[in-house]
Amino acid sequence: MTTITTFHDLCIDVIIEILSYFNVHEIFYSFCLLIPCLPALLANGHVRLHVRLNNSYFIRWILPHINLTQVVSLNVPTRPYNPSIFQFTALRSLVLRDVDNPLLLFESSHNWPPCYLEHLSLHIRNQDIPNISSNIGVRVLECAFQLQRLKHFELHESKSSLKMVELYDQLNFPLKFQSTNIKCLILTVYCNWKTLQSILYYSPYLHYFQFRSSFSSLETHSSQLYFTSIRKLNCRLDGLKTDLFLNIFRNAPFLHQCKLQCSFSSSKQYHIDLLKSDIWIQLFDTHTSQLKTLNIDITFPLDSIDEETIKTINEDFKILNFKLYFYSDNVKPCWKMTGIFNRI
């Protein structure tokens, strides 16, 4: 004989397990009428809560019925931050947008920053007067690096920033500081050469790195980038010379996946070093033997290359799945090399 069961026939442990797959808004939207004792169940079952919005519904109907010490992830898309984020002392993940004074987040007081914080993403504003230098981005990065349990950090610029946020100086730490434990670092703000070198020096466990930078003639005396521990690299680099580009691969022995968007300075050397497939293959085999995927978007200064030469180059590039072609965006005509190389 078949027995028909309902949601209420489930044991408490199963219900708690089900609730753990939803964020707090979804829990109250979906289960507040189905489970009359929902707030007590959440508290007694020690359900880890995930907050994705701080809208009026959350403040009025959810906030009074939850324990903030059970909130382990907080994603706040808008200001003002109500309630204050400093009340969430058990966070493991925090995403904040439109942050106007990010350094306040790192002042050690009232159990803040949360000692178990592993994921931090900040969209910061720079409200400084235009044309006056500010290193707010570097100071934030220094603070984040000193959070002992932090594994994932992202730094973005808020859409409401009054002045571009950028990283343009070396990182400075107390003498006792040795390195960060961060494994994933995403920087969508501009990163100066000095800052970039400093980041790599203090990040021995970094596996994924995303950044953008450019190089000037003043920086050619120290053109090495050491991606010692990097497994996955995603970067945009402007003003490159061929030797610096090749050193990316020479100094990344554990690289698995790589996405490069690059532009080269005026030099004909790339004709020799980058427009032959055997140069690339030798580079992969010698220095990045673990490389599985390479996605490139490379821009060269416009130079006179006849159609027959282009045809020969592209025929040779088929083994890499690369292609060289003329490109014009109505601003600066150039040569582009694009493609995705996959090693089987």
UniProtKB/TrEMBL annotation:
The keyword Transmembrane applies. This is Uncharacterized protein. The chain crosses the membrane at residues 27-47. Keywords: Membrane, Transmembrane, Transmembrane helix. It comes from the Eukaryota.
